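hey so u asked for the seq, here:
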Amino acid sequence: MKNETGIPDFSGKKILMIRLSSLGDILLATPLIRTLEEKFENVMIDFVVKRQYQSALMHNPHISNLVLYDREKDKVRKLLADLQETGYDAVIDLQNNFRSAEIRKALSSKEYIFNKRTLDKFLLVNFKINRLQDAPGIPERYAMAVPGLRLDEKGLELYTRKAASPAISGIKNLIGVAPGSRHFTKMWPVEYYQKLGIQFSKKGYRLALLGGKGDLTVCTEISEKIPGSINLCNEDDLLQTAADMKNCIAVVCNDSGMMHTACAVGIPVLTFFGSTVREFGFIPYKNRNLILENKSLTCRPCSHIGRERCPKGHFKCMLEITPERAYEALMTLVED
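ran it, structure tokens below
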């Protein structure tokens, strides 16, 4: 396929793409993977990812080889030697940290590096100077690493070959609830999830609790309060969770990897933004969604990744997003 002027021609070339972690960041890279593979004839795309996140890409048809990264020094040396032996025409670094730089430097390849806009994030968090106001979402920012490249019009992708769990087979009015997060300030309160779930169970909807082994406690706590709910929390089986999400009419979640997982399987999401803001770019991408956030606070954002506690002590960014407000928003997703 003939390429537009100014865009590097990757036709017939071997590309190494790097995004080691985390789940959401990796899923946000899938539009770029797809666009490159579909745009350039006979391009080979290998992708380096941490072993614990391999399931996010293991069935992706646009990737030639999935290269697994382990942090142990001897395994890194072996990885670098294997990559040198393979040889690449270009490296697209979407991680842009010292680990990905080590991989880049081991290869004599043309480099394309994602601009993390670290200074802009620092200014927004610490001084509320917003130079990210008109910045596009992360998938577009990833694509900007390749001069002149435009993404296609499709969203995120996650391929799973699993069927939905038997416990939810045939349920037509199922709402997924993914209440977990790695950071406290990105979690809508447990009691709010409980109240929201009770309201929807009274309306005749069934709720499925979704998450990995780190979410088991919170999922169990919520499920026990909601009549008829089904706890599908598992041992970090992402592909099973994705298959279960496909049975849902909507997913309620925090700003987390589960939000991007739901988007990657095309399910509408209602999501809560607490300590983080849209400007960081980690918003639902090309998928039906509603974001609830407290825009009245001058302390937001207090972090670009989340915190263990509210630095102000009031946690108004989440506490003032009431279950009643969430109920009204979710109704627009499930009944439209």
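The chain has a mean pLDDT of 96. The longest strand covers residues 44-50.
lmk if thats what u needed
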